[in-house]
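Technical annex, item 7. During the second reporting period the consortium partners agreed on a shared format for inverse folding records so that results from different sites could be compared directly. Each record opens with the tokenized structure and is followed by the designed sequence. A conforming record, contributed by the partner at site C, is shown below for reference.
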């Protein structure tokens, strides 16, 4: 069975990562190196605990009554959860269709990963950073072309309402005008749900 490094489980989150009561599962491993990353632990593959889908299911199923009563479930984050497509697919087989499974993702992964998980996941929380490729690269160290291609495919392949796009104001990297331009482009692509916020730099 597939194994993955997980550095955090956060139970009883209410409407923070989707509808109802959720448990946030934070995977190690991320393709980005964001300047203000809140989860730098995810960069270190020597940290975290080895899990199989069975072990994770045994630990989180204690909250099944909350999940079913509130239409909640598990939100996979990290790190980058879409790098763990086989793990998430096997977990879905264990929990069945009743739980809501979401991914909190940058979408900066190969298209094959997105395609493999689209039938498994109920929704996405996508941290787009900024639509301007220069700003995106300065902040994350990576190109955003694959992000935009994956987002466009997701918008065309299913209900846009299953997608929430986070558009942050990032001190020293983008301006309010940059954020407004990003949101205009995203709306033109078909995005209907946004979480606009300002990073708190500590």
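Designed sequence (site C submission):
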């Amino acid at each position: 069975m597939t194994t993955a490094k997980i550095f955090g489980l956060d139970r009883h989150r209410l409407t923070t990562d989707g509808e109802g009561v959720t448990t946030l599962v934070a995977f190690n491993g991320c393709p980005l190196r964001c300047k203000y990353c809140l989860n730098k632990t995810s960069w270190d593959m020597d940290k975290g605990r080895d899990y199989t889908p069975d072990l994770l299911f045994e630990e989180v199923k204690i909250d099944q009554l909350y999940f079913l009563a509130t239409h909640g479930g598990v939100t996979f984050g990290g790190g980058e959860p879409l790098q763990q497509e086989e793990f998430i697919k096997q977990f879905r087989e264990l929990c069945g269709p009743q739980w809501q499974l979401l991914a909190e993702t940058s979408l900066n992964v190969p298209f094959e990963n997105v395609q493999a998980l689209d039938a498994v996941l109920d929704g996405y929380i996508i941290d787009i950073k900024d639509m301007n490729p220069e700003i995106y690269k300065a902040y994350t160290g990576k190109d955003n072309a694959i992000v935009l291609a994956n987002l466009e495919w997701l918008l065309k392949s299913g209900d846009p309402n299953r997608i929430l796009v986070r558009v942050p104001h990032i001190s020293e990297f983008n301006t309010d005008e940059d954020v407004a331009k990003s949101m205009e482009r995203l709306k033109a692509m078909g995005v209907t749900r946004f979480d606009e916020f300002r990073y708190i730099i500590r």
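The mean pLDDT is 95. Strands lie at 4-14, 21-27, 49-51, 73-77, 100-105, 123-127, 163-169, 194-198. All partners now use this format for quarterly exchanges.
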